[in-house]
Design goal:
The protein is α/β, with parallel strands linked by helices. It has 3 domains: about 55 residues, no CATH class; about 70 residues, 434 Repressor (Amino-terminal Domain), CATH 1.10.260; about 120 residues, no CATH class. The protein is built from 11 helices and 4 strands. Strands 3-2-1-4 form a 4-stranded mixed β-sheet, with no helix packed on it. Helix 3 packs antiparallel against helix 7, helix 6 packs antiparallel against helix 7 and helix 9 packs antiparallel against helix 10.
């Protein structure tokens, strides 16, 4: 692609200094291409640890949570992003990236910010610092690019949880599905998935199911609408085998940690619900963003 003349500057270098500092000036007939180039240059300029031309690393669920908690602490203390930047010795844009989960932060910097914000809840601060310090690359990263980011976030949150409550209206609980059932469900996705993506999703779901059989099994409660029990993904035989697998799970080693409830179709309050995860010992101040 040839060089573009930025409407705001005198240079025809698409990564020119004027473009980097004032991307809004590219709102013209050049907007479609010139603005993209300027934004790319801006990322490179403000994030020196990244290679030129590359976007920021994909935020993980835990990194996002660290950023959310730091922002909540800062706002509760009445401080600005500029105040946080002064404490860390960074520019303000880097603090914004940290609070968005797009840039990692060390446990030491979390503690420094908490001290600046005069956060008195030490258990809460320690929990946030612990999350910041954990840079373990989870097994779910193997599926990045093959499954939607939301599934990767679910996998990560479940991995670090001690209890999980889910609600299904269309199919059996995900962590109790057989490989056959999972594959049949993903084959019904529209637009159709490629075989490679179907197998990646099946593998992800089977790995997630290991939470119920690990040495410290997840406490799992699944609420299923009656309609889900009547769905025939993969045919009647597949449904029967799936039901038998759930029965075996509830009667096996998971009988003390897993339970399932069925909600009848005539019962009120069966609208959409969200999965709820929790981790033992996590301070109760954790909440929505």
């Amino acid at each position: 692609m040839g060089a573009l003349q930025c409407p705001s500057g005198t240079t025809d270098n698409p990564l020119g200094e004027r473009c980097i500092t004032d991307c809004r000036a590219c709102d013209s007939k050049f907007a479609s291409e010139a603005r993209k180039i300027c934004l790319s240059a801006r990322w490179t300029r403000h994030t020196p640890t990244m290679d030129a031309g590359k976007m920021p690393p994909t935020p993980t669920a835990r990194r996002k949570r660290v950023g959310i908690e730091l922002r909540k602490m800062r706002e509760a203390a009445g401080r600005t992003a500029g105040d946080a930047a002064a404490v860390l010795g960074l520019d303000r844009s880097k603090v914004t990236l940290i609070e968005q989960g797009a840039y990692p932060v060390s446990a030491e910097r979390v503690l420094a910010l908490a001290a600046e914000y005069e956060e008195a809840d030490s258990a809460y601060v320690d929990a946030v610092a612990e999350m910041a310090a954990d840079r373990t690359k989870g097994w779910w990263e193997e599926h990045r690019g093959l499954v939607p980011p939301g599934i990767l976030e679910i996998s990560e949150v479940e991995h670090y949880s001690s209890a999980l409550v889910t609600y299904q209206i269309c199919h059996a609980p995900g962590l109790m599905q057989t490989e056959e059932t999972a594959r049949a469900i993903f084959r019904e996705v529209y637009p159709p998935l490629r075989p490679l993506n179907i197998e990646a999703r099946v593998e992800n779901r089977m790995r997630r199911a290991e939470l119920l059989t690990r040495s410290d099994p997840l406490e799992y409660e699944a609420i299923v609408h009656e309609a889900a029990l009547r769905m025939e993904f993969g045919g009647n035989g597949c449904r029967q085998r799936a039901a038998e697998a759930v029965a075996r799970a509830l009667g096996g080693p998971q009988r003390d940690t897993a339970r399932i409830g069925v909600q009848g179709r005539r019962i009120q309050g069966c609208g959409p619900r969200r999965a709820v995860c929790k981790r033992a010992g996590t301070p109760p101040r954790y909440g929505p963003a």
